[in-house]
Design brief:
Layout (H helix, E strand, L loop, with lengths): L1 H19 L1 E5 L8 H18 L2 E3 L2 H10 L10 H11 L3 E10 L2 E10 L4 E9 L7 H21 L1
Helix pairs in contact: 2-5
Length: 157
């Protein structure tokens, strides 16, 4: 019985350590909206990831440097394998990509959490605002929290 408890405790600690060591790169959102909207969405994503615990967000300047060195532009990053490769070069375990598109007076937002080793989309969330910019932050936060909560459950299994 002691052996089972000790083994379970070690396994739990190792999974917790794995989740805590997760480095996340957050790319600028794609889409044809104003840069101010993109910046707000990116910063909200970063805030949610940092405050969720268990994740380290890579510094913005590092992401820009790697993107420049590889001559990639975030608007042209449509292939998940390319995104995964860039994430690897940054030392990230996960990459958050997003897009923001206008729909009449509202915004359609999409988020993908990509595991860089496999370039597999682990989680995806989408949402539509109902009040234009009036509820954009709430939609972003709600979708990001869902995406991270789903990811965390995967880490605990």
């Amino acid at each position: 019985m002691k052996r089972v408890i000790i083994t379970s405790a070690i396994a739990l600690l190792s999974l917790t350590a794995t989740a805590q060591d997760r480095k996340v790169a957050i790319f600028d959102p794609a889409g044809s909206v104003d840069n101010a909207i993109k910046e707000i969405v990116r910063e909200e994503i970063s805030s949610v990831v940092v405050n969720a615990g268990g994740y380290s967000v890579l510094e913005r300047s590092l992401i820009n440097k790697v993107l420049e060195e590889n001559r990639f532009q975030t608007g042209g990053l449509v292939d998940d394998s390319q995104i995964g490769e860039i994430g690897k070069r940054m030392g990230a375990n996960l990459v958050f990509v997003s897009s923001v598109t206008t729909m009449n007076q509202n915004y359609y937002v999409s988020f993908k959490l990509i595991e860089v080793e496999t370039a597999r989309v682990e989680k995806q969330q989408t949402g539509i605002t109902r009040q234009g910019t009036g509820d954009l932050l709430q939609v972003v936060n709600k979708r990001q929290v869902k995406c991270l909560a789903q990811r965390r459950r995967l880490c605990r299994l």
